[in-house]
Design brief:
Aminopeptidase; Methylamine Dehydrogenase, Chain H; 40% strand; Immunoglobulin-like
């Protein structure tokens, strides 16, 4: 978990005194390498909830129907309700630091300035005691187990054991120097020494150290769960897996997140790691491999509970909640993993895999790939690409173990394409071109800042926001057929809508446009769509459109959506002059506005 200096200190550090030479510019932090092959943009995860935390949240603690975070800059701890997604209590705590833990009906919140641990009654949300134990370091962790609180103290040279009910100090146990984090699990207290790169094990029956386990460089944060003890090692960005029965290291897993800060937790069948700029990594407990890794803004404290990942983001002044199922639904981004199998001779065995493209760009060569799974006919394979009623045949050529065909389309819209072996052809696939200005689609012009993260959507009485993506093709196409106040026949086909959904997903991931479907609570019915696009009109930096289906209109969703979307755009998005074509001005008037220079 990375801390942020106060504004005054930051100001003092960058403004030289009179007569002094300007200080050297601090080089940017070295990018974390991560784990190639399993990475996704963080923008691919849309928060299920977002809790605003002005001043910056940090550590997290969880219990039944409660999640807490602390806020050092505001001298607060804050309680969130995971069922209602609301902030329900704010409690003053001076300079809260070094973790949080819920035990014996109270939240224990260490204070670095006061050198005590605040106890907050979780029924009344009131401070009921202050235990005179100073945390060892602002970057650390507090634990509960064996009816006791375990708090590294004395600058990292000892661990205090505190009775969780009375608050009495039961013992002070010397440990390896530089010990800042404690966890409890499997009947033992486990303490990481960042300075000595060991984990000290304390037996609660005797308060004696029974083992010191060497681990990878600079372990800091820890978790006990899923059958093992885990350390996040800041030196090399690895995770150590310790068998609690043998007290031996059984694996060191490269996560590619070296450096300060971060957090780790083990729950929901996996190990989860957060680090600045790689906010979320998932490790399979059994294979000891990183299965998913999300790259982008965010990352600090983390806990997993109630089927969700809770992720605090100090730089963004919020806490995000994501369903763990969203992470599990994603697979490493290999094009073959979602390619279409093609069986030319209809014998039940695929002959090739045809790439299912996400998007294409007018005027730019588009490469279509095929992976052979069987012998290719001597006559070779042909790409049949149809754009705006015109079909073009392009022969595939060999590129290593793949076959490729290149096609350049001029005018935008859908390309319907097939791979053919003689007269035997695959079923057609459809890929759409962007509807945004091409300069934005090619990322020559930015729609939003480079470090932007799409904000959590507003609450709408149980309705579910889902990015427009192929997984919701059926409800989305049905919504198109049943759009309220439709005045023209539906001409888009379901395969074309599939192409559109791939495009929307690609745009969301690349931050060139953002589109959402509003689904019923069971996710079977889409009742509305919201589109946030770059504007090509002078005087406007974004255009926002939304519409409802007949069912959405019957449910009186449109006025609710109108108010919620406008407030959301105003408060959460970085636009200075968004437009609402078809609402604040007639569509014809919008279309007639002059085009901004540099858009196409």
């Amino acid at each position: 978990m990375t801390r942020t200096l106060t504004a005054a200190l930051l100001f003092a550090s960058v403004v030289p005194a009179a007569g002094q030479a300007p200080a050297a510019t601090t080089p940017p932090p070295t990018p974390k390498p991560g784990v190639p092959g399993v990475q996704f943009p963080m923008s691919r995860l849309v928060p299920d909830a977002e809790y605003a935390m002005p001043g910056g949240p940090d550590w997290l603690a969880q219990g039944e129907s409660q999640v807490w975070t602390n806020n050092r800059r505001q001298n607060l701890v804050v309680r969130m309700d995971p069922d209602t997604n609301q902030t329900v209590a704010v409690v003053p705590v001076k300079d809260p630091c070094s973790g949080l833990i819920i035990a014996a009906g109270t939240l224990w919140a260490p204070s670095c300035t006061d050198g005590v641990i605040y106890r907050i009654d979780t029924t009344t949300n009131q401070v009921v005691a202050k235990v005179p134990v100073a945390p060892a370091n602002n970057e650390g962790g507090i634990a509960y187990g064996a009816s006791s609180i375990w708090m590294p103290t004395d600058g990292g040279a000892a661990v205090a054991r505190i009775d969780a009910v009375s608050g009495d100090i039961l013992a002070t146990v010397p440990v390896a120097p530089g010990s800042y984090t404690a966890v409890f699990g499997y009947g033992r207290a486990w303490i990481s020494s960042t300075e000595k790169s060991v984990v000290t094990v304390i037996h609660p029956a005797t308060n004696a150290v029974i083992a010191e386990i060497p681990v990878d460089t600079a372990p800091r944060f820890m978790s006990a769960g899923e059958g093992y003890v885990w350390t996040l090692n800041q030196g090399k960005g690895t995770v150590t897996k310790i068998d609690p029965s043998t007290m031996k290291v059984v694996a060191t897993i490269d996560v590619g997140v070296p450096g300060g800060g971060g957090d780790i937790t083990a729950d929901e069948g996996a190990v989860w790691v957060t680090a600045r700029d790689i906010p979320l990594s998932r490790i399979d407990v059994h294979t000891e491999r990183v299965t998913h890794q999300f790259v982008g803004p965010g990352g600090d404290g983390m806990r997993v509970l109630h089927g969700s990942v809770f992720l605090s983001n100090g730089r963004w002044n919020n806490v995000w909640r994501f369903q763990t199922a969203k992470v599990l639904d994603l697979v490493p981004p290999s094009w073959t993993s979602k390619a279409a199998p093609v069986d030319f001779d209809r014998n039940g065995t695929p002959d090739v895999l045809l790439e299912d493209l996400d998007v294409w760009f007018p005027g730019q060569p588009t490469t279509f790939r095929v992976k052979p799974l069987a012998a290719i006919p001597a006559s070779g394979l042909t790409l049949k690409a149809t754009l705006n009623g015109t079909t073009t045949d392009v022969p595939f050529v060999t590129r290593g173990d793949l076959l490729e065909a290149s096609f350049t389309g001029g005018a935008p819209r859908w390309i319907s394409y097939r791979v053919c072996a003689g007269t035997a052809c695959s079923d057609p696939l459809v890929v759409a071109s962007p509807t945004t200005p091409l300069s934005v689609a090619l990322q020559k012009t930015r729609f939003v800042p480079a470090d932007f993260m799409a904000p959590g959507p507003p609450s709408l009485d149980g309705y579910v926001w889902n990015i427009l993506e192929p997984e919701i093709l059926d409800p989305d196409y049905d919504a198109l057929l049943n759009r309220a106040e439709r005045t023209t026949p539906v001409t888009i086909t379901k395969p074309e809508d599939y192409g559109e959904l791939k495009r929307h997903e690609w745009e969301f991931t690349h931050h060139t446009a953002f589109a959402y479907g509003i689904l019923s609570p069971d996710k079977r019915t889409e009742l509305a769509c919201v589109y946030i696009n770059p504007s090509d009109k002078q005087g406007y930096d974004a255009s926002v459109r939304f519409w409802v289906t007949k069912a959405g209109a019957d449910a009186k969703l449109e006025p609710v959506l109108d108010r919620a979307v406008r407030q959301w755009i105003k408060e959460k998005w970085p636009f200075k002059s968004p437009a609402y074509p078809g609402r604040d001005m007639p569509q014809a008037q919008w279309n007639a506005l002059p085009t901004s220079a540099g858009t196409n």
